[in-house]
Amino acid sequence: QKAAQNLKTIVPIKFHISSRTDTGVHALCNSAHFDIQRPPGKPAFNEKQLLHSLNYHLRPESIRILDVYRVADTFHARFSALSRTYVYRLLLGCSHYSEIPVFERDLCWAPAGGSLNVPAMQEAAQFLVGTHDFSTFRSVISETPLRSPVRTILQVDIRPSSGFLSHHYEHRRLEFWELTFQGRSFLYRQVRRMVGALVAVGQGKLTPRHIKELLEIKDSQAFPPNAMAPPSGLFLKSVEY
């Protein structure tokens, strides 16, 4: 919004963002909309002008505008979204945080304890797919009582991935995995809690059936203590319209 003030519009610009993220969480792509009104006699901005102008004023920040589109007055970046896709990156093979490659620090989570039982995690993940009451998988905040805990998870995938410049340190035998979650919307810290529970399954601390039981309990206090995944490995990948 601060960058947009330089556009010299009649009415101050207010951005409406599709999704909020916790401190430490990343976004490969997020979406927002805003209304813009120029002074009388001034031609409307085109998409390219807005793209370059906003990015010019965003130079000091770790954010860039990737695309600009003109949309209908009825469009809303948050409420018009059909689904959102999050990716969580895991790194296996590090016995200590200091062993994470410097290019990957704060961009993944390296759980302690070595390898994970990925087939068990994949089995457990299927209990999360579908429409459920996710009360156990949300953190409690002031607005929690006002929001329905029912959410629909369209897809959960757990697949091997590659790290940034990982071909330069193949001798270290590090493994990268990505957990992908797609749903229309998510509760506060829901994805991080789901990841933490799935990793606990992979470590043998929980069984796949425990995930089903946690869903059925419908109580945020029943979530295993200290099991929530840290924010550093989480990325908002895309918002679908």
TrEMBL record:
Reaction(s) the record says it catalyses: uridine(38/39/40) in tRNA = pseudouridine(38/39/40) in tRNA
Residue span, Pseudouridine synthase I TruA alpha/beta domain: 124-241
Keyword Isomerase: yes
Key words, A-Z: Isomerase, tRNA processing
Binding site for substrate: Y86
InterPro entries cross-referenced by the UniProt entry: PsdUridine_synth_cat_dom_sf, PsdUridine_synth_TruA, PsdUridine_synth_TruA_a/b_dom, PsdUridine_synth_TruA_C, TruA/RsuA/RluB/E/F_N
CDD domains, per database record: PseudoU_synth_EcTruA
Superkingdom of origin: Eukaryota
Residues the record marks as active site: D22 (nucleophile)
Signal peptide: none
Gene3D superfamilies referenced in this protein's UniProt entry, alphabetically: Pseudouridine synthase I, catalytic domain, C-terminal subdomain (3.30.70.660), Pseudouridine synthase I, catalytic domain, N-terminal subdomain (3.30.70.580)
Name of the protein: tRNA pseudouridine synthase
